[in-house]
Model the fold of this input.
Amino acid sequence: QSVLTQPPSVSGAPGQRVTISCTGSSSNIGAGYDVQWYQQVPGTAPKLLIFDNNNRPSGVPDRFSGSKSGTSVSLAITGLQAEDEADYYCQSYDSSLSIWVFGGGTKLTVL
Amino acid sequence: QVQLQESGPGLVKPSQTLSLTCNVSGGSINSGSYYWTWIRHHPGKGLEWIGYIRSSGSTYHNPSLKSRVTISIDTSTNQLSLKLSSVTAADTAVYYCARGGGKIPVYFDYWGQGTLVTVSS
Done:
């Protein structure tokens, strides 16, 4: 079981907005550790999508945004496009385990 | 643009040692305060952080892997390596190397393509 909990799948039609949740605990997200989001198209390397909760690396469209509240974070994708179909993973640090931790991943399907 | 590429045997027998190498190009492995990291992805499961090494040689690995993990760095060849001993079927996974950067605790801004390692007799 992953330390961070994500829904296994979400879906949306082109142009719509979808959100992916990631829930942690008081030893990771709730302790104030930043959260990252990674996008992985099957067969390719994971790509950093959001860092430090709500910052986008250069080249990532502003359709992707992150937010944080308490022990949970969310990734929002607006104006959904076919190319957004991928697996999405959240990641943080856990002070109790003293390791970097990930969510189990969410498969986004663009209908 | 930093690029990472993993290489190594795709099949390892149970009880043997898994050995992988990660070649870093587009930047020196010896520059900056990066955490050169190994991460694995078990089939059908989430990602698992294995450990890191810094250019100084300091390392730290996931306690759940006990003393089976050895991570080393060769600044002359710009490579890092992973050895995982006494493997079992549970170690079957896609193994990634990644660069840890940003503020502490770091995040992983560049990843390799990953290499599938199957543990089977």
